[in-house]
Automatic annotation (TrEMBL), chain A:
Name this polypeptide is given: Collectrin-like domain-containing protein
Keyword Transmembrane: yes
Membrane protein topology class: Single-pass type I membrane protein
Cellular localization per UniProt: Cell membrane
Organism of provenance: Oncorhynchus tshawytscha
InterPro entries on file: Collectrin, Collectrin_dom
Lineage: Eukaryota, Metazoa, Chordata, Craniata, Vertebrata
GO biological process: positive regulation of amino acid transport
Database matches in PROSITE patterns: COLLECTRIN_LIKE
Automatic annotation (TrEMBL), chain B:
Gene that encodes it: LOC112238959
TM region(s), chain numbering: 41-58, 70-92, 113-141, 193-210, 222-242, 271-292, 304-325, 415-436, 457-476, 488-511, 532-551, 581-603
UniProt GO BP: sodium ion transmembrane transport
Keyword set includes Membrane: yes
Membrane-topology annotation of the record: Multi-pass membrane protein
NCBIfam families referenced in this protein's UniProt entry, alphabetically: Na_transp
Protein name: Transporter
Amino acid sequence: MVSKTLNAPNGYKVRISLKTALGEDAYEWNQSEMFFFQATMAFAMRRHFQMETYNVDNIILCVQTSRVSFWFVVTSPDNTTMLIPKADVEKAVRMSRHRINNAFLLSDRTLEFLGIYPTLAAPVNPDTPPWLIVFGVVIGAVCVGIIALLISSLLQKRRKEKGMTEDGQDEEDMQVKGVENGINLDGTYNRGFTDDDRFTKL
Amino acid sequence: MRCLQVSNQDLEERIPSYEELEKLENEEAGDRPKWDNKAQYMLTIVGFCVGLGNVWRFPYLCQSHGGGAFMIPFLILLVLEGVPLLHLEFAIGQRLRKGSVGVWSAIHPYLTGIGIGSMCVSFLVSLYYNTIMAWVMWYFFNSFQETLPWSQCPVNANMTGLVSECERSSPVDYYWYRETLNTTPDIDNTGGLQWWMVLCHVSAWALLFICISRGIETTGKAVYITSTLPYAVLTIFLIRGLTLKGSLNGVKFLFTPDMNELMNPTTWLDAGAQVFYSFSLAFGGLLSFSSYNSVHNNCEQDAVIISIVNGATAVYAATVIYTIIGFRATEKFDDCISGNILTLLNTFDLPEGNVTENNYDQVLHSLNGTYPEVIQGLNLKTCDLNSFLSEGVEGTGLAFIVFTEAITKMPVSPVWSVLFFIMLFCLGLSSMFGNIEGVLVPLQDLGVFPKSWPKEAIAGTTCVLCCLVGLIFVQGSGNYWLSLFDSYGGSIPLLIIAFCEMVGVVYLYGIDRFNDDIEFMIGHKPNLFWQITWRFVSPAIMFVIFVFYFITKVQETPMYKAWNPESENFPTLEEKEYPSWIFAIIFILAGIPGLSVPLTAIYKCLRNRCCKKDNEFKQDDLNTILSSVWNLKNSIACKVTQWHK
């Protein structure tokens, strides 16, 4: 049977999805639960208006289906023939939405008041976006790496130059003594044949 | 094949002889850098070849061209095209011991253009490839949050609902197109530089600089991590993926063979192109890396091993990717069905659990029989698992949209996100090493930088220059520029260069000389398989692929896909034509590297003819006389000292 839309200008349709919310632990929806709902709604109305004494009898339920869904209207405690306007009911529900949800172990999605849209959670804006922190760490490491690289290459260069001047002196001594390929020679080395200029430039 | 060989005089004077090579090998003289060990060399080459394409191009090709059946053309072309070209590059680099410009000018001065072309292509590819690295880094930085920012839509300004652009598309699409790229609706609007992307861009280039600052001295150490980490992460993802629901659907979808695809020539073309680009041939990087090897390194074995590793990695990565895609598709399918079921339950006030996935079709059918108008009015979505499986799964779309969405559905998402983007970063970085090598070494060979500059300064200047030019890609329209560079800069010129390389080595350098070289280096002549593939098969395949590619590209009007929230089919990407001034850019991208081969040849030829040839001969004679006198002097010196012993 297709679900009916009642011509109830001051009523709200409620839809409950127990199995979606609780799965295996879903409780059975029976008359006691309906009573609990009435009590919760009365609490919400009291909380909002703060002066008037709403009671369980002021919450009238109808068109209950096996989905589980039903309609409800709220009557004024002073005059049971007078219905509380939709807007006021909405304000009351919005104020205590969190409490109503928790009473039934449900959420905004599984305990729906058709027509009352859930307020969106305010976005959490951290002071520094988290990605900047990670970026800072990575860039810091990269800078340290670059500095270490430059320093190490400078040190290498200095060592090479030092080593070259020392080696240069050693080589000259060795050449005077005539060491070639590690073999000590007694003769004098003829500098005319040193490898200084491989190709004489024209 | 003597008749087909062009005479190449003075070749011996330009290349080191066998004796010189032996001397270099034994005395370890010469200032060319060397690999610390074979593992470094292999890891660098594997890293260069295994890149983002293995992760996000091959799986898509495999799935769209008949799944398991695609393996057949892929493997055939791997053997006939990939392995011979790879062996050729390794061998010629190892023999001539120079970078790409050096090798080709040694083979024949007129062929210097091949080297220059390689350098240009490597430069163009490096520019945009590192921007992809910047994107990966951005996602990596943003993964260190409990709820990943792309898992939900942000709330709009007056907190009444979600941002409209996000609601109409999806959180992952919105995050990629709006919060990461901030794309403009078309390529004409530049959109200005996006500061967060500039930061990531700079950090990507800075990281690259550290790794390449001293050439293979530093990259050799870096590859121990960048080449091995992706395999570890892929394995972790495989294990995780196989335990998720629906993963096997994905793997089945990937590998289900459709033999009819083998009749389609596009399948073979795509397989050939994939093999070619996957091996990073014609970039010059492979030549360079091989030239640092010892002379007697077994390049034949290396080529075969690398090819097998590359092919196996592609298949392995495809499997892993598709387990995750299968999971995502199943989740989406389940969500779709649940949504429909909920609608049915709500409309007909049926108790929960009455309609499940199993009896959904039955119930729908019976309800449609009784209340057809109501069912029509509901606009139930058709849920098809196969359509979810084939959703936009290639290129950046795979990594930044589909895969990130899949990650948000996995428990402990930030961990998987961090791992995934580290893997992508390592894959890309190791490929960048090869690209930059293909730029730096030719620049050094051409003498662009003064000799007194240390390696770090050269690397630093190149990185700074590339970083500045690469700022095109971090504008609002950057994504469109990147795909432009990718389709035109990184495709056609490479095919031309590879073809010229083969012809140059086989017919100008001489296949007989090449065979002798390989015999000298590894101990035996290359067998019949290599001879046939080098001389005929591989050049023919290259030529066919080039012709088809060229014809396809020239015939189609160049279009690009734009993200335009104002378009009618939003969130589907809007196909737009490129504006006319883009053709000049396309010509620069595709034409200059490709035309550099003939243009340099003509330039050198003209320069040769201009200078008087007599003078050159006299100079040559004089040099010969001088060097023989020199040798005489040295031998006398030796004898004198020996006599003194």
